[in-house]
Amino acid sequence: MIRIPRNALALGLAATLLAAAPALSFAQAQSAPAAPATMQGSPSELVLQNTRRVLETLESRRAEFTRDRAALQRFVSSEFDTMFDRDYAARQVLGRHGRGASDADVKAFGDALADNLMRRYGSSLIDFNTRLRVRIKSETALPRNLGVKVSSELLRQGGEPIPVDYLMRRAGSGWRVFDVMVEGVSFVQTFRQQFDAELQRKSIAQVTKELRSGQLSAEAGSN
């Protein structure tokens, strides 16, 4: 099984936020620059603009988030939900096990997986280095008109650039992320492999129930 180190998962969650969140809640808007109201514009523009904005938000609210982890969780969940295409990503994670599955079962699985990730790893964003710069390398079409891949790098002082790729698809008049690849490792592929054995023995509904109860956890790594 592909395993992503814990710090890479934190980076991946952060990367999703950086690419995502087109709008802040009222409370967030009071302490961060205003954000565009829709997800219109090219995928590359969205990645670049929102990366800068969310980094600023994480930095400006660091003291608050350090004191109030519930506020951090709300921020992470709301921003993640805004852009990440949970249902489509869930079908990708389910793979062959999702063939013929109802939309309701897929949605419940996607929600349970995302919530599990937020609970387990969301707090690690408090240690995320916000003094980064983003560089967009390219925007290329995915095969079969599935969407686009935005290839970027997070630039840090005293270290090698961190490659982060976003796979994005059209959703209405805008774009949504359905996979994030950090240093070439796909989160969808990682979790597809992780849950394959469970889904061979159990229904999607049962795996969903166990994710919600904590009997199963999205294990991205141990470092």
TrEMBL record:
Pfam families, sorted: MlaC
Gene3D superfamilies: Tgt2/MlaC
Keywords: Signal
Signal peptide (UniProt feature, chain positions): 1-34
InterPro entries (UniProt xref): MlaC/ttg2D, Tgt2/MlaC_sf
UniProt protein name: ABC transporter substrate-binding protein
Organism: Luteimonas composti
Organism classification: Bacteria, Pseudomonadati, Pseudomonadota, Gammaproteobacteria, Lysobacterales
